């Protein structure tokens, strides 16, 4: 059994002012055939799984590109095409192969190409022919297209948000594709459009129970896999929106009926699952009125994981204006400020301009008198079993507020983004994290409450008012009933 594995992706916010080029990939994750020799991350972890499982059955692995970019704006097309062509050249050199497994995001957009995943999988299919199974693992914030479904043998998405199950889904995909290669099953995919643009938080009810129900259906009565693609709201593409995908063993009628049934369940829960967001002052008020602490405020509109700059100052400015203290906040992407702090050294006190550097979505910079408390070169934070890079980072204090500034744009994922500096967020009244939901698994256990803040920013969560130009179907919440008529 010869298995070909690769990874290529990013989550494209088509409204973001930040282009996605080769440097962004290199800074985030870029390996040319040797990713499994390094520690796993969220989009290289599946390659580790596939190598291990292949070797356990006595097979051989051909490992190709592993490239992932921190979400930002539209990908430079020549960069995408060079990466795609590298994968194709490696696959041609490896022929014949028994199975192809590729980890992508599902929401990658390049200049003039809205469906990079479909383009890639179609190219893979043209090389290996109709009979070799191609497995595609996707982030659940994906735009599932007919081109993907028509060329892959099986598509399996993360089920959890925050994404704590990428390795488990990789195992699931391997098992389905192995059974396909052995002639034991014939996977058939059925797709249902839920006509919804929203976000779903899987740790809390009713989504917790729904994900559990999805998983309980798998492996029974010919159902191989069930995935709920939440969609990525800030992608201006024709296929944006939530979709249900069922993979059966050659039973398209059952798959279609089950996909529609589950999709209608999501529809019926729309009001219960719609995420609650507070404005900045309301969130601060609730946090200050909460006994104990800390209260975590998620600055969802400035989440680097959704393509935002991660340098907005709207929440910080309001905390300063209100004189709120005993606060820790991060991570602010500000390479200039970090450079100045490193030059000044630990213990230095001086005037520093923080944030607000990438445009109107970032707000105005904030001028502070800061003290540098700690400097870390090549700082990291945890995300489940993987490690995320912060770059060079500093902890500074100003006016009763602790800030973490860093040089590699990323969202705040875990309390160790702070504790690695010796800064304990559990001792603060308010913790402000620049993240939409991936912070939850790490921070919820230490939080007296978790509040989601709809500050201004690059990914403000007003789903009905996202300025789509390519979505030509009605969707909720823009219209009350997108299925009418």
Q: How many runs of DSSP E, i.e. beta strands?
A: 17
Largest sheet: 8 strands, mixed
- Termini separation: 51 Å
Number of helices: 14
Q: What's the oligomerization state? A: single chain
Low-confidence stretches: none
Main-sheet strand order equals 12-13-14-15-11-16-10-17
- Overall geometry comes to globular
Give the radius of gyration.
22 Å
Provide mean pLDDT, rounded: 97
Determine the strand fraction and express it as a percent band: 25-35%
Which structural category fits the helices and strands? alpha/beta
Give the % helix: 25-40%
What does this protein look like?
With 485 residues, the protein is an alpha/beta fold. 29% of the residues lie in helices and 26% in strands. It has 14 helices and 17 strands. The chain has helices spanning 22-28, 45-56, 77-94, 116-128, 146-151, 166-181, 207-217, 252-268, 270-273, 280-289, 314-321, 335-344, 416-419, 440-443, and strands at 2-12, 29-32, 60-72, 99-103, 134-138, 154-157, 187-193, 223-229, 243-249, 295-299, 327-333, 349-354, 366-383, 386-398, 401-406, 430-433, 449-453. The chain has an 8-stranded mixed β-sheet, with helices on both faces. A 6-stranded mixed β-sheet has the order 2-3-1-4-5-6, with helices on both faces. A hairpin with a 2-residue loop joins strand 14 and strand 15. Helix 2 (45-56) packs across helix 6 and helix 3 (77-94) runs parallel beside helix 4.
């Amino acid at each position: 059994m010869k298995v070909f594995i690769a990874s290529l992706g990013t989550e494209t916010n088509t409204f973001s002012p930040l282009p996605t080029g080769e440097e962004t990939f290199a800074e985030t994750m870029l390996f040319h055939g040797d990713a499994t020799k390094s520690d796993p991350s969220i989009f290289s972890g599946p390659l580790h799984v596939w190598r291990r499982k292949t070797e356990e059955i006595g097979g051989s692995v051909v490992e190709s590109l592993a490239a992932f970019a921190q979400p930002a704006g539209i990908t430079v097309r020549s960069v995408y095409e060079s990466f795609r062509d590298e994968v194709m050249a490696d696959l041609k050199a490896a022929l014949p192969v028994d199975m192809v497994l590729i980890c992508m995001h599902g929401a990658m957009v390049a200049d003039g190409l809205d469906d990079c995943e479909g383009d890639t999988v179609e190219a893979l299919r043209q090389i290996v022919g109709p009979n070799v199974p191609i497995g595609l693992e996707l982030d659940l914030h994906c735009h599932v297209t007919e081109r993907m479904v028509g060329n892959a043998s099986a598509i399996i998405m993360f089920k959890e948000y925050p994404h704590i199950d990428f390795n488990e889904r990789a195992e699931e995909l391997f098992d389905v594709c192995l059974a396909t290669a052995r002639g034991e099953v014939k996977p058939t995919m059925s797709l249902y459009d839920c006509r919804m643009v929203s976000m779903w938080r899987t740790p809390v009810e009713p989504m917790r129970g729904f994900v559990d129900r999805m998983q309980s259906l798998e492996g029974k009565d010919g159902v191989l896999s069930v995935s709920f693609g939440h969609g990525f709201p800030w992608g201006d593409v024709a296929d944006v929106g939530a979709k249900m995908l069922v993979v059966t063993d050659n039973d398209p009628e059952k798959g279609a009926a089950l996909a529609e049934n589950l999709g209608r369940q999501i529809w019926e829960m729309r009001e219960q699952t719609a995420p609650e967001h507070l404005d900045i002052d309301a969130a601060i008020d609730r946090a200050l009125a909460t006994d104990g602490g800390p209260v975590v405020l998620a600055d969802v509109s400035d989440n680097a994981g959704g393509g935002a700059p991660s340098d907005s100052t709207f929440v910080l400015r309001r905390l300063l204006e209100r004189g709120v203290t005993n606060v820790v906040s991060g991570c602010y992407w500000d390479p200039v400020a970090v450079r100045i702090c490193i030059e000044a050294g630990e213990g230095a006190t001086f005037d520093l301009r923080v944030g607000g550097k990438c445009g109107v979505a970032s707000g105005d910079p904030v001028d502070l008198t800061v003290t540098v408390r700690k400097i870390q070169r090549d700082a990291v934070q945890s995300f489940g079993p993987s490690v995320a890079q912060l770059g060079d980072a500093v902890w500074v204090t100003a006016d009763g507020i602790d800030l973490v500034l860093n040089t590699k744009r990323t969202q705040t994922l875990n309390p160790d983004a702070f504790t690695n500096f010796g800064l304990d967020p559990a001792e603060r009244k308010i913790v402000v994290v620049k993240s939409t939901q991936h912070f939850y698994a790490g921070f919820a256990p230490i939080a007296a409450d978790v509040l989601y803040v709809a500050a201004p920013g690059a990914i403000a969560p007003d789903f009905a008012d996202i300025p789509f130009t390519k979505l030509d179907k009605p969707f909720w919440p823009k219209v009350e009933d997108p299925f009418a008529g």
